[in-house]
Amino acid sequence: MASGSTSITAVPYFYDKQFRRYIQQFIRLFAGFQFVVGYTSEGDPIYQTVPVRYGDISRMAAHIQKQNSENILSTVPFISCYVTKLDMNPKLRTYPQFEENMQVIEKKYDEATSSYVNEAGNSYTITRHQPVPYTLSMNCDIWTSNTEQKMQLLEQILVLFNPSLNIHTTNNPLDWSSLSYVELSGIQWSSRAIPQGVDDVIEVATLTFDMPILINPSAKVQRNSAIHTIIANIYDVDTGTAELIRNGDSFTPLFTSYKIVTLENYKMRFTVDNAGIATAKILNRANGVTDNDSQPLTWDKVFESFGDFRADISQIRLKQTDDPGDTSGDIIGTLARHSSDASLLVATIDIDTIPANTKTPVDRIVDPELSYPGDGTLPAAANGQRYLLSNTIPQGSAWGGASADANDIIQYSAGAWSNSTFDASANTTSTFHTTNLFTLDKLKWTGSAWINAYEGTYNPGFWRIYL
């Protein structure tokens, strides 16, 4: 007696049309071939395309196509393809219980603008299972009414298989079985015998092909919901604003502070050397290089709680504002492992996310008390030279009587140095960016000092890595 609660299958039903895709790709290999049916009055050849179809047709359908009559012959030429055999392929079999986890991050989609933005969106974990290998054997029958038609088609087809062609069954980048090949393994020139009666006017040549295929079980897709940063807004308001908050109305706080909670409160030091190679070094909360067990702190230990690191795909973001929730000015780069130091990651910065210069680049940073033009450390003064000063120019010095203070940018023009291009004392409320051409460092004016625009030690919450 059958029970209504009995489980028939061990896994839920799924059907991905994998055999169908392999057969369709095989049939497409023979689409578009032509033959010459005659010539125009000017002597130009007239071409006709040969149709190709799947040859596994039922007797009933074939009888309907012939209009229920045995006196109607099939129209030729045409090409038919059909499966002849399916065998296990033990040569391609590997560890059957193997599973692979992949981390996939979507680009963030902005519903308001109906477009993708340059930010990470939903994160998924894809669990892929080992596919099962088979060899699919297929025949390709070439139906013609004469030997000339057959030779025209065979000459076009056989030159392609030397002895195989590659095929793609899907364009899914996560499908590790999308690539296969079709190999020509046999040729039957004709299905007719000698001598041949006059009743059979159709000539059939058969090409035999073998195709290694992989049949995949269903994959498991999980949406990740790990919290990497918690930001709590803490507002300071006056007495009258409390009523607005109780009513749910908008209000303007006197100031806002943030409480940021991250995994282990790790810090990160981001540096760029003179060769332009950027690295990210993991640090503990005391700027040290060891974990809670006094063991060397490495990136692999950090990633254990989140997922797998993917070289040249995993992304780093460096926040450039005091608001950890503001992502508009993030500097973004892709990451790769360092060749020898497990505490370092090598970053390739997206130059489109680096702030653009708002001041013309300077030749170098100079201490005017230690160096002057033509002293051997600096070249002789020439029009267009620009220096960022780290100190005040001494009076009566070799700078030609120029007057400028620390953080000013001076430029040589018409035989004199002037800080008219940037006077630090007149720009205490603005932000500017420039580049030091000597070191290629990007510099940022904060209103009181020039600092490196994005190098330095980042506190928790102000740097993020998307795996």
Please supply descriptive tags for the structure shown above.
467 residues; mainly beta; seven-stranded antiparallel sheet; six-stranded mixed sheet; 5 helices; 27 strands; disordered N terminus
Strand arrangement within the widest β-sheet reads 26-14-15-18-17-16-27
Helix content: under 10%
Arithmetic mean pLDDT: 81
* CA-based shape: elongated
Task: Give structural notes.
This protein has 467 residues and is mainly beta. 9% of the residues lie in helices and 39% in strands. It has 5 helices and 27 strands. The chain has a 7-stranded antiparallel beta sheet, with no helix packed on it. The chain has a 6-stranded mixed beta sheet with strand order 3-4-7-10-9-8. Strands 19-20-21-22 form a 4-stranded mixed beta sheet, with no helix packed on it. β1 and β2 form a beta hairpin.
Q: What's this entry about, in short?
A:
With 467 residues, the chain is mostly beta strands.
Topology:
Elements: H1 18-28, E1 34-39, E2 45-49, E3 52-54, H2 59-65, E4 78-88, E5 99-110, E6 115-129, E7 132-144, H3 147-158, E8 164-168, E9 179-188, E10 203-215, E11 220-224, E12 229-236, H4 241-246, E13 255-262, E14 267-272, E15 278-283, H5 299-303, E16 315-318, E17 331-337, E18 344-349, E19 364-366, E20 386-389, E21 409-413, E22 416-422, E23 432-436, E24 441-445, E25 450-452, E26 456-458, E27 463-466
